[in-house]
Amino acid sequence: MDATLAFPILVFLIGVALLFDFLNGLHDAANSIATIVSTRVLRPHYAVAWAAFFNFIAFLVFGLHVANTIGKGIIEPDVVDAAVIFAALIGAIVWNLITWGLGIPSSSSHALIGGLVGAGMAKAGISAAVWSGLSKTLLAIVLSPLVGFLLALVLVAIVSWLSVRSTPFAVDRAFRILQFVSASFYSLGHGGNDAQKTMGIIAVLLYSQGYLGADFAIPFWVVISCQAAMGLGTLMGGWRIVRTMGLRITKLTPMQGFCAETGGAATLFMATYLGVPVSTTHTITGSIVGVGAARRVSAVRWNVASSIVYAWVITIPASGIIAALTYWAVLLLR
């Protein structure tokens, strides 16, 4: 495809990608603020502003390992064209809107990955997938909530032991302050991992059209644009999912909120530095379940947690099917 002739289409697709990034922030705002809102440490509108700021500055903390994984490690770069990217984004956006409307905290990350795989396979069959990168991502579906669960569980045990001689009032006051720190770290991890996925999409699109030359790289303007779009989406909030994440899974105290956010943040930091595109939704859900289970198993509303798991399981195939149908529809309209 001639790069000059493709420029208007390229601009349109970059706009669609940034729209996805905005919706990602909107959809996943709950991941960053659910615990600090449910413990009443911050009011919702202050909480989203706090989270949006740390979402935006995440590029100052992390490298671009996740963006490179998305750009080169999910489907073969040679398969990528305007129709594939458009179909992948539509698959992810439609699935995000469906789950957002229903208040289901599904994974925007896996919706995007499912969209890429669905559109790529619709064009080139099973050979379109880069199985080494894809298998690493699929493994993270299981490991990220499990790691978040275990870290949160251990943190609750440690913090409870350290606080055994303190009064409940003193513990509550201390962790109300500490939750500002843990929420900041979690929002940094969220912005660092999730915004990079859209960076990878835009960069592989630019590369496929010849705008990056011979070497794949992430231009700085792409980094800033994606971080800004995600921060703006977070600023708009996602109140339906906040209710599910912060109130319906288990009742949280400030100490438990701190442990959930810290366990989730540690998981995201590790994954981002390793270049693994994990789900922030999976991670924080696992952490919230972990702190609830540390109190007692019956404290977790397992029917709510299980419905979230069902959404996780179907996200990649559902967004992939939507993307494949979109790709074939684009071919018919050409």
Q: What is the domain tally? A: 1
Q: Treating each run of at least 4 consecutive H or I residues as one helix, how many helices? A: 12
Radius of gyration: 20 Å
Number of distinct beta strands: 0
Percent helix, as a range, is over 70%
Q: Structural class, please?
A: mainly alpha
Q: Please indicate the percent range of residues in DSSP E strands (runs of 2 or more).
A: under 5%
- Biggest sheet descriptor: none
Oligomeric category: single chain
Query: What is the H-and-E element order?
Result: HHHHHHHHHHHH
Mean pLDDT score: 82
Shape: elongated
Notes on the protein architecture:
The chain is an all-alpha fold and 334 residues long. The protein has one domain (3-333). 79% of the residues lie in helices and 0% in strands. The protein is built from twelve helices and no strands. The chain has helices at residues 3-38, 44-56, 65-73, 82-102, 108-124, 131-162, 168-208, 220-236, 239-248, 254-274, 280-295, 302-333. Helix 1 packs across helix 2.
Question: What does this entry show, briefly?
Answer:
The chain is 79% helix and 0% strand. The protein is mainly alpha-helical.
